């Protein structure tokens, strides 16, 4: 194994900051691993995956789907993503236990498109003060549980496992 530092891009689409918080936890844990550095960049900034050795791509889930900017990012950069280790994560289930329990609709096609090695769903956050009027009305009508259901320890544990895989991978030339 080489002693070169593996650069990891954590690219994220977050509507109200909850998923961005999970991405920050992932990047902090990845960057704390020996031989790994990580940076969080919103997908809206179109970070070039070619300058990274690995990519963790994540999105908030609304109505069972990834946000459009994350889906577009995956499609636009699919060729580069397939050349390096990629993992996907989703954020959005809320409540105890987190609901809905199903995988987001986009996971299988995005996994195939990017060549992702895996996917993880993390519980999300529902903070009515961050929602638009329409979103608050929808959350109220659905009787969605309000609160922060994110699990930073679970994000750190997953990042630690990814760091081991990333450290064992050869850097992309």
Automatic annotation (TrEMBL):
Domain of life of the native organism: Bacteria
Gene3D superfamilies associated with the record: 3.40.50.360
Record domain Flavodoxin: where: 9-143
Classification via InterPro entries: Flavodoxin_dom (IPR026816), Flavoprotein-like_sf (IPR029039)
The name this protein goes by in its record: Flavodoxin domain-containing protein
The organism's taxonomic lineage, starting at the top: Bacteria, Bacillati, Actinomycetota, Actinomycetes, Geodermatophilales
